[in-house]
């Protein structure tokens, strides 16, 4: 008996493929206020990042399952601020997540409850554990698309409102990255 292959990982691109793969695109206009100078950007329809994930039939919030996806953050800046994901914290606060670098170069910003943070370099082959009770986002500091795999519990949920990011990451010159503390 042959079983239908519903999902496949293409490591060359990297990309998820198959009938059970869903995707979404996030344009600058949907979170322009996350950037210091977002309102000065002339083209708010730019795609900043895309997410593809395996639609395994589970509903977010149900216990006992796993989700698998890939985030693709485009290269570029808004003003001098690098493209980044909206970032989130899990609704089920104590649930963690794994990220792994597939292609490109960037940073993973993890912010703890006490407002301390760490930045981890994301490169091809890097693996990152994101503990529960943390806000986290990806930042593309490179010149090509940053592709990062992710696996998280189905009960985790995503909260894009009650997360906080106390630093911004800017391009300064050709090879310099500036991390700047902010209050918003």
TrEMBL record:
EC number: 5.3.1.9
GO terms, molecular function: glucose-6-phosphate isomerase activity
Gene Ontology cellular component annotations, sorted alphabetically: cytoplasm
Pfam families documented for this protein: GPI
Pathway: Carbohydrate degradation; glycolysis; D-glyceraldehyde 3-phosphate and glycerone phosphate from D-glucose: step 2/4
Keyword Transmembrane (UniProt): no
The UniProt record lists the keyword Methyltransferase: no
Gene3D superfamilies found in the cross-reference section: Jelly Rolls
Keywords on record: Gluconeogenesis, Glycolysis
GO biological process: gluconeogenesis; glycolytic process
Protein name: glucose-6-phosphate isomerase
Family: Belongs to the archaeal-type GPI family.
């Amino acid at each position: 008996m042959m079983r239908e292959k519903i999902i496949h990982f293409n490591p060359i691109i990297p990309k998820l493929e198959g009938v059970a793969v869903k995707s979404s695109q996030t344009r600058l206009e949907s979170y322009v206020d996350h950037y210091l100078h977002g309102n000065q950007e002339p083209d708010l329809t730019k795609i900043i990042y895309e997410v593809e994930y395996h639609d395994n039939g589970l509903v977010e919030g149900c216990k006992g399952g796993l989700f698998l996806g890939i985030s693709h953050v485009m290269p570029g800046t808004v003003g001098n601020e690098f493209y980044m994901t909206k970032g989130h914290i899990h609704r089920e606060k104590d649930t963690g997540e794994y990220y792994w670098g597939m292609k490109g170069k960037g940073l993973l910003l993890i912010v703890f409850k006490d407002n301390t943070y760490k930045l981890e370099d994301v490169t091809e082959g890097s693996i990152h554990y994101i503990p529960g009770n943390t806000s986290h986002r990806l930042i593309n500091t490179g010149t090509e698309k940053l592709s990062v795999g992710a696996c998280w519990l189905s009960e985790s949920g995503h909260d894009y409102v009650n997360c906080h990011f106390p630093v911004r990451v800017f391009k300064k010159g050709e090879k310099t990255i500036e991390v700047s503390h902010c209050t918003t």
